Amino acid sequence: MTIPSQRHFVDVWNPSYASNAMEAHLALLLQAAQRFDAGELTNDDAIYVWWGKVRSPNRQQPLRHGPTVLEIGAELQGDPDREGHLYLTDYRSLYVGHVAEITEVDVRNSDAGAVPDYYTRNRRDCDFWYKLLDIRRLVEDDTLSVIAELKHLRNVAYFDRPVSLYGGMVDLPLIVNRPDGARFFEPEVRDPVTGGSLWVEFDAESGGVGAMERELRENLLGDAAWMAFPPAARTFIAGAEKIFRDYRSDAAFDFGPVIGGLSKAVEVICNAILAEVLPKLPARAREANLDGQTVDLRERGHLMLGQFVRAVGGERQLNEALKGSLEHGVWFTGSLPAIVEELLEVRNPGAHERRVDRETATRLRDKLMGVGCQGTFAELAKVRVKVGPTVTPSR
Fold it and tell me: Rounded to an integer, what distance in angstroms lies between the CA atom of residue 169 and that of residue 73?
């Protein structure tokens, strides 16, 4: 049964008539964020953009599930903890918008400054408008990855089957749910990855990596491993690899950003694994001493890499519980903390005090990416939560 609070949307923007549609919305949202950072806007509630559900000129009848869309919009406004998603694709890229409100009122008449002008310029009428507080890029210029990412969503109107690009994009927007309950926009999820920025700001700074992501998926890590990683981790890996390839012939270049990006990817992947497995562990096994205090890691949230090493490598009950609850758990709890420590020895000075030389960066990059060896990322892709009863750690 579909739970109403889990319902989201999937829609398509058509490059044939709006090739710059996504760019126009991102630019307007970025402009609002920059104005807030500059102090021109005093309230972050002013950071948003309206996305219109364009009405096809060939459709005369009302949208079949229009009432359901507005019903979900009312749920969003009535529940401040609800995180509404609008997944947007042109079949090659995939974005998710943070939906705060849905209205049938033509906002071009009341809030024109937050609406891209191409709707008016191209004479597009809309059935309704989504108010988006942020937009995150999940896939850039890689159709196969879009297909894989959309499989996380279930089409409510089609017996909760996984969303499919081919033959499944009818009666748009699709009403979908997301069984994994993924949340993208709450600060506890976003800020450890973006450094406190909105996703639209983070993506703007790390743009242009779509071709590298596809290259790594097709020619190095493979489909299964690549798609096992969270989207943010894929962005960090591809960004680091792009910098490395662009500058590896420059012996004087500081490769600190390469090690920083790869380290952040490991951090994001490890936290995603822990977020999935920790709820399945006994309360005592989730406890770890961090910064002089004993905390429940499930409540603690995101761990920095140093904290990960101290918790997973140093807490016996947690270590044993993870071994029994994870596929490839022995490697995750035994080998990975030492690999992370080696990475931290280079990353921390590289981020703050001295440059990272090409030889050091190449050695660590090769070890992580699997150049000439079984790479750390390939091993991480094998780590997943076991299906079955929770393993209770020995006392």
Answer: 21
Cα-based angle 177, 53, 2 (whole degrees, multiple of 5):
15
Strand partners, 136: 96
Count the domains in the chain. Answer: 2
Instruction: Identify the residue with better confidence: 144 or 389.
Output: 144
- Per-residue model confidence (pLDDT) at position 3: 40
- How far separated are the first and last CA of the chain, in Å rounded? 40
Cβ–Cβ < 8 Å for 240, 366 = no
> Is the bond leading into 162 cis (omega within 30 degrees of zero)?
no
CB-CB contact of 245 with 277 (8 Å)? no
Domain identity same for 238 and 123: no
Name the nearest CA neighbour of 86 among 11, 164, 20.
11
Average pLDDT, stretch 310-333? 96
Residue 86, beta-bridge partner list: 9, 97
The Cα 140–Cα 177 span in angstroms is 23
- This prediction has a pTM of 0.89
- Could you write out the three-class secondary structure of 48-101? CEEEEEECCCCCCCCCCCHHHHHHHHHHHHHCCCCCEEEEEECCCCEEEEEEEE
Residues 234, 146: contact at Cβ < 8 Å?
Answer: no
Tens digit of each residue's pLDDT (9 = 90 or more) over 141-169: 999 999 999 999 999 988 899 999 988 88
Q: Which of 15, 44, 19 is nearest to 29 (CA)?
A: 44
**Residue span of the structural domain in which 91 resides:** 4-186
Closest listed residue to residue 187, CA positions, set 195, 178, 177, 175: 195
Q: For residue 269, which of 320, 239, 299, 303 has the smallest C-alpha distance? A: 303
Task: Give domain status of residue 193, yes or no.
Answer: no
Q: Are residues 179 and 211 in the same domain?
A: no
Q: How many residues does the chain have?
A: 395
Enumerate the β-bridge partners of residue 135: 97
